[in-house]
Amino acid sequence: MSDLEVxxxxxxxxxxxxxxxxxxAARLGMAQPPxxxxxxxxxxxxxxxxxxxxxxQVNLTAAGEVLLRDARTALEAxxxxxxxxxxxxxxxxxxxxxxxxxxxxxxLPQILGTYGADEASLPPxxxxxxxxxxxxALRDGLADVGLVLCPFDSRGLDSEPLLTEPVLVALAxxxxxxxxxxxxxxxxxxxxxxxxSPAVHGRPVEHTPQPGTTRPASNLSEIFSLVETGSIVFxxxxxxxxxxxxxxxxxxxxxxxxxATLAVAWPHDARxxxxxxxxxxACTVASAQHLQAEPVAPSTTT
Length: 302
Fold this sequence. Notes:
Number of domains: 3
Strand content: 15-25%
Number of helices: 9
Number of strands: 10
Largest sheet: 5 strands, mixed
Structural class: alpha+beta
CATH topology of the largest domain: D-Maltodextrin-Binding Protein, domain 2
Radius of gyration: 23 Å
Order of helices and strands: HHHEEHEHEHEEEHEHEEH
Strand order of the largest sheet: 4-3-5-10-6
Distance between the termini: 64 Å
């Protein structure tokens, strides 16, 4: 049996994720017949069926499920290898730090200062992304280390927790719920999050669009503008609420919403002294800060 090619794995993953040959072909920018032939070639090479096909639907077999898991890992490794090789070969190596703007617990300036004093440090480059994008940036080799909110997809990554703080709900100051000192998720049954999902589900850091919804607000400025109009509510760590007091927004604690933990994360196989220096700096700063969330008073802003 010959080894599978990267191209074959990409084709297989597209079909496995779409479970529709037409949509997978469109996603890959190719015609459907050659895609179908490639999948049949893969099945012949492996000697197993990867899909159960009927006139109405396409489903993965047990073998297909296993290949999908491992193919994703293999493709991530190939992508990461290319990005890391490109970075290593550049004339000015840097430490690429992935994070969501303002979601750093207020620690980033101190971390960078402490890190910069380490003899193993490299010039830092901030790789900004949306909520929850940092772990994939690390796996893809687009960043060397990251500040992430837990829980997160930790495949292929190591991490150390830095601080834990309450998650608050941001709602319009004119909202009747703003008159309460404390809320629970059931109180938010009729409210929506920025991604269009029900707030009662309590998913504070996921902001990918849900099926049938429009593009979610992409930054805090957009989110806060929508919150002020009463269009949405927003779950935010207490440090974000402290950083962005606005007269049109009320921040309230939610009794049954889990706390948010900020962690520093890096790839399992990282061997860079600069990554180790950043992790040391982050843990040192977090330990010295002893940040604890403060009680939220029932005022308009916190």
